[in-house]
Amino acid sequence: MTRDDLIDLLLAPSITRARAIFYTILAAGVPTFIRAGVAGFVSGCELTIYLPFVLVAVVFMGWKYGVATALTSVVLAQFVVLGPHHSFLTSACSIYSLSVFSIGSAAIIAAVHGLRRLIALRSESPGSSNGGIIFSLEKGQAWASWYGRSSYVQLGPQSEVAEMMEDFLAQLEVGKRLTRSSG
Predict the structure, then answer these.
(1) What is the CA radius of gyration of the chain?
(2) Helix (H) or strand (E) holding 86
(3) Integer distance in angstroms from the first to the last C-alpha of the chain?
(4) 41: burial class by Cβ within 10 Å (0-12, 13-18, 19+)?
(5) φ/ψ (deg, to 5) at 134
(6) What is the mean pLDDT of residues 16-38?
(7) With contact defined as beta carbons under 8 Å apart, do 56 and 28 qualify?
(8) pLDDT at position 25, please?
């Protein structure tokens, strides 16, 4: 995996749409079954088992699915793990565990989302080494892409794009001459 592949993974979650909904349910369900499975050995209201799953969800599916995983986890934790003897937000145990889990989830989601935004801003900055435009030609069509990005934009047929670029360069020259003569 190259540096650009890692940046692309961080900037664009790899699991989307219907698959993301399935994995969101899975990301909340797996820790529920684990926690319920050890209920005889572990007492109390610990819900930290859910936090790594929230992290995986936000990294691979984005912040919206991270939030959905956290909320689904709260519902499952309340009804499966904590059970009916911990009425929702009325017992000290429920209030504490769900608050700690919610704060931890929010911190994880905000940190991953913030890191993504920071990387995106840095990779888009004009002074960065990967801020240039690459023009290419394929099957008579002109394309533009940017260093460090895997997306491309079709500009149009080669002849039309070449004519527009020549016109653009001519306009720049006229602008330079007018600036020199007025200054």
Answers:
(1) 26
(2) none
(3) 53
(4) exposed
(5) -110, 125
(6) 93
(7) no
(8) 96
Which pair of tokens denotes residue 160? 């039309």
Task: Please give the full DSSP string across 140-168, using - where no structure is assigned.
Answer: TEEEEEETT---EEEEEEHHHHHHHHHHH
For 9, list phi and psi in degrees, rounded to 5. -65, -45
User: For 98-123, what is each residue's pLDDT tens digit?
Assistant: 899 999 999 999 999 999 888 877 76
Element (H, E) at 134: strand 133-138
- Determine the residue type at 79: F
Q: What is the pTM of this model?
A: 0.66
Domain ranges of the chain: 3-124, 133-182
Element (H, E) at 45: none
Residue 13 pLDDT > 90: no
pLDDT in tens, 31-82: 999 998 898 888 777 889 999 999 999 999 999 999 999 999 999 988 888 7
The rounded distance, in Å, linking the Cα atoms of 155 and 145 is 10
Q: Which two tokens stand for residue 161?
A: 């794009």
Question: Residue with structure tokens 């306009």?
Answer: 171
Type of residue found at 86: H
Q: Rounded CA gap, 159 and 125, in Å?
A: 31
The phi, psi pair for 135, rounded to 5°, reads -100, 140
Asked if 97 and 151 touch (Cβ cutoff 8 Å), the reply is: no
